[in-house]
Amino acid sequence: MLDLPEEKSVARLEPDPPAPGPTARDRNGDFDIPQRRTSEEKLPPGELLYRTLFDLVPEAVYFTDAEGVIREFNQRAVELWGRSPKTETERFCGSFKIFYPDGTPMPHANCPMARVLRGEKLTPSDCEIIVQQPDGARRTVVVNPRVLQNDRGEIVGAINCLHDITDRKGAEAALRESEERFRQFSENSADVFWIVNAEQRYLEYLNPAYERIWGAPRADWMQDINLWLEMVHPEDRAKAASAMPKVLAGQSCVVEYRIIRPSDGAVRWIRDTGFPMPNEEGRITRVAGVAQDITEDKERARAIERAEERFRLLVEGAQEYAMFLLNADNRIAFWSTGAERLFGWTQDEAVGQSGELIFAPEDRARGAVEREIETARREGRAPDKRWHLRKDGSRFWTDGVMMRLDADDGAVRGYAKIARDASDQRLHEEALQHARDELEQRVLERTADLLTTNAELERTIAQREQLERELLEISEREKRRIGQDLHDIVCQELTATALFLKSAGNRATDKETARTLNEAAQIVNRNVSLARDLARGFQPVIIGSGGLTSALRSLCTQANTHPEITCHLKMPKAIRIKDETVALNLFRIAQEGVSNAIRHAGASEISVCVEREDGFIRLVVQDDGKGFRMKKRSKGLGVHIMHYRASVLGGALTIAAKAKGGTKITAVVPNRKK
Q1: Cα 36 vs. chain centroid, distance in angstroms?
Q2: pLDDT at 29 over 90
Q3: Which element (helix H / strand E) includes 559?
């Protein structure tokens, strides 16, 4: 059915040209309504009815003669063309521009009205054209031209009905664009879109996301709609199957179920949202839905639940600790049971209150609340060790910490505080501090006594060391005196005695007496050599100007006089020791070591080495003898004297057996400078 428009005027062209004078139309082509009404009043009733019906037709209609000249048209044609055509001059569609459906210009000779006037037959595709209005707007119309013939069958004119389908074309284009957008959205969506024909129960549409999530080809489900239920987990099939009847009954339904993918056996969680799609009459002809893979959401939810459960167990189980959360504006957002037990306020009483609720008045006045928050905000955490208040007004010492909580973007989300009652610990700490103070006082007093005693001891040790050095010096002086007496007196007397005996032997006439006197002279000369050796031992070369190096060289030379003895001196660098005491004692240690190697170790090769290192002088005496036995260490006076000399110099002496036989004596003493 067509809706009839309101009454509009009908323009009619008279068969004969109008007489000169005022025209029925004004300069704009509009009708002169008063004149038209006068003309209509003179028309017979049938003609008036015809014109009324012609004007009420909702489509654009116009008549032409056999030449195609427009003779009559209704108001809908004027609205479609955008203006009234000029009578008796415009043909077919007047001077209006017309186009083919593809937008290319159409010659007027090819328009449908011209073709039917020539007697041509038209196909439906020939009847769709585009008309351009004077303002440039284009309208798509479908024409339905019909020829008018006389009794002889001659074409005397034509009538054309134009149906404006511009809006329908736009709607169709919009629908195609919408369908294309839906296709692109659906084809690229990560969720599954499905549409089921509710009357015949078959699947009309299924997007490619199904194959990725279900792990099965779409064609299988398109052929058998019940196939999807076989992939649902057996425990969830009843729940999944109950959703479709609800949707067919007109309800939107959301159901979650598990599927077992046939491709890899993986179990995936699906959230399926189904909804009815009624037609214009309200009858449900289709149902559609969106299926989402929520496996990761489920896993995250389970992880959150486990984390929340662990947090709950941790918080609720730690009855000795008060745990609560603060918003960024220092308002309490969470209050644990431990906080209720420790502070006395219930969760309902504490949540929403300011965090300064637990602070003592003097701390609030000093700005302790603000400083704690600022420290936590700046450094991430702030210690909280102070006296806090309970609900009943009592105080207890708290040992706690406030920590900053950050959002994902780094902004401060809030603060968390953990605290415990450390009053007993505080008392113990105070008692411990008091005891520590007393102990420190006692230590100071005892230290003063020890310092006094130590000073006395140091003076005693210094005096002892001084006495030891003086004893060594006296010993050395006595050795030098004895050596000098041996050399100057004993050796000279013995030499004189030997000369006297030899002279007497030479004068003796008795051969036996001469031989005896000569033998006695030889014995005395040998004793002279022994006495000189003793003198050299008591008065070493170091006393002279050659220093330690010269003395050691003389020591090695003297050792080499013994048969089958080789003694070497190794001095990597020239070492000059300014302190004569240090040089003398080192020489005595070397002298004792060489003497022991010759007399007790049965050595054949001896080496003496002196070197300087990091402010110390190292003396090493080595031999290849039978070695040093630790059990006899205490019996040798020479070993004790060597240790004593090294100790007096502030050093140390070690005696060790070599791996391949022999003994190694090492003395390390400071290189003191006078």
Answers
A1: 90
A2: no
A3: helix 547-559
Whole-structure pTM value: 0.39
- Yes or no: say if 453 and 460 are a contact pair by the CB < 8 Å rule: no
**pLDDT at residue 448 tops 60:** yes
Question: How do beta strands 605-613 and 566-570 pair?
Answer: parallel
pLDDT at residue 471, rounded to an integer: 67
Per-residue buried b or exposed e for 373-382, using 16+ beta carbons within 10 Å of the residue's own CB:
bebbeeeeeb
**pLDDT (0 to 100) of residue 637:** 63
Tell me the DSSP string of 439-458. HHHHHHHHHHHHHHHHHHHH
Contact status, residue 665 vs residue 610, Cβ threshold 8 Å = no
The 3-class secondary structure across 265-280, one letter per residue, is CCEEEEEEEEEEEECC
Residue with tokens 């609340």: 369
The residue length of the chain stands at 674
Using CA atoms, how far apart are residues 521 and 208, in angstroms rounded to an integer? 134
Mean of the per-residue pLDDT values of the chain: 80
Between CA 440 and CA 357 the distance in angstroms is: 40
- pLDDT of 26 higher than 60: no
Q: What is the DSSP string of 316-365?
A: HH-TTEEEEEEETTSBEEEE-HHHHHHH---HHHHTTSBGGGGB-HHHHH
Tokens at 426, concatenated? 């505080």
d(CA 566, CA 559): 7
